[in-house]
Please model this.
Amino acid sequence: MATAPREHFTSRTGFVLAAIGSAVGLGNMWRLSYLTAEKGGAAFALLYLVFTAAVGVPVMLAELTVGRGAQRSPIAALAHFGSAAWKPLGALFVLAGFVILAYYGVIAGWTLRYAGAAVAGGLPEDAGAYFGEVSEGWDAFAFHVVFMAATIFVVSGGVRRGIERAAEVMMPTLFVIVIGIAVYASTLDGASAGYRYYLNVDFANVLDWDVIVAAAGQAFFSLSLGMGAILTFASYLGRDHDLPNEALLIAGADFGVAFLAGFMVFPLIFALGLQGAVIGQDTGTVGALFIALPSAFAEMGTAGRFVGTAFFVALIVGALTSAISLLEVVVAAAMDGLGWERPRAAVVLGGLITALGGLAAWRVDVLDAMDTLANNVFLIGGGLGLAVFCGWVMRDASGEAHAGSGAVR
Ligand code: TRP
Model:
């Protein structure tokens, strides 16, 4: 099997951008804003920050350590440092990749659709009705297929020519757009009401069990933890980096973009008086982003056309770099475990995941159920499993984490 030498990232920057690309995605811009809206403002964001720092960073370091140390994809890496008894945990990672990417691709497909509408100047004022039309059925499936094709294409290109190169172009683009829109939004009348809503800390909510679980699940999801995505990327790293700084850098960038996203979303919504579409409405998972914001863009006329296009392009870019990492987990497992060639693994397994996404494209309820299952069960379970593995099973995990020049021992 592993005859050819393992492909490695060309540079530290390339790796960090790819890992940030994995972390920053729909989770930052879509999930966090709706959860924040739903769970009562920045108290939720604060709780999420606590989970990011206290649980996210250590689990991220665990993934980096196991992946780089083993130079193998998750199932093989766990067997390498532990024993065959740990393989089911790796299999759970691959399963999580299947489920998450299947519905993630559908949401990304909606984003593609909205971007197209924004370019054409046709974002509807009645975004609720529009969302109803495009979110389920064959249309939703078709856009999902297009998005998945792009993901499969990049992953087929390999670590350097596919994943690394895509991240190097796309991540700076995303940063520029997000900062640009946040600055623009701050100039709108009424923006301050948005900030007040976003940053209003309601501690009563923070003690709620549901809210705590949602914040923990969100931290794992947003950081791409709990299913071996960061582990797989780290398996393409040489031992010339020390890892703790990388973990901080990736988590910091992820939190930064998520926090900044609130500074584009809420001022826009409040400036146009559309908070009713977000607060206290049963628009479930999607209210903040796919209904309120498009209505805001539609009402803004020409400016909305530009800002709306930029916004959805940023979402697509974020989604694509994340989807790449999800598919890479599955593809790397097939390459290491079954000896498949990369392009074959990408096309066959990416195709299966695309088909599974048909379920999520069929009904938003199913998509929601897949999201809940993946986050509250797979990711939290997978992340804790890996923490136990690093703490009790793997020998000298700390030595491995600190190996490399610039070590901060
Ligand atoms: N972190 C990404 C986001 O915020 C989604 C994602 C990519 C992911 N890879 C992952 C989530 C692995 C969990 C596990 O959109």
Summary: Residues 22-23, 25-28, 100, 221-222, 224, 226-227, 229, 322, 325-326, 379 surround tryptophan (CB under 6 Å). The mean pLDDT is 88. The two ends are 36 Å apart (CA to CA). The chain has 18 helices and no strands.
